[in-house]
Protein: E3 SUMO-protein ligase NSE2
Organism: Cotesia typhae
Amino acid sequence: MSEFEKLLPNICDSIAKTAAHVISYADDDNKEELLDALRSNVQNYTENSQKFQNINALISNLSSGRSDTNVEEILQNFNDGVSNFQPDSSTNEFLKQYDTRVADLKKNLAGEKSTDNDDEDADMQMTEEDGANLICPISKVRMTEPMKNNICGHVYDKASIIALLRGNAATRCPIVGCSNKKHLIMDDLTSDIVRQMCM
């Protein structure tokens, strides 16, 4: 795995955090334009990652071939493989995560705007519900850096989940009754921007 591929989750996470700031602070006139530009960046990064994977696969296949093959023929096969490759980012998980996060942020922001016009009781109830959602199910204290499990959707505080995994690497989702049977790994967790915006 190349350095670029290792950094791709962090890059996409940073772009999603930037989208959260765009949704919160940008003017309505150019908000969608900025979000589309950010989505285009995620798409470009994922397509470049696919191109890198294709090039690595071509190099691996061509280097494992016969040693008596002509060098020019190998170069021609490599160039053909690179030029004929068409990346498809429509099914990419990072692009789907970006779209989901932006939709959640827009929904969250729309919910905040609608409660601004409601009475104080509804505002108080909303605040209490948000507070309950900001409590880490592991440590039972308010989250400082919420991390969402991409498999089951549950949210934990980053420090709590790191401590839990340090104690037992074979830990599953600590939420009682969770149908996720896969062991927790940090690669399956992403920062929950919606909850961070509520803090």
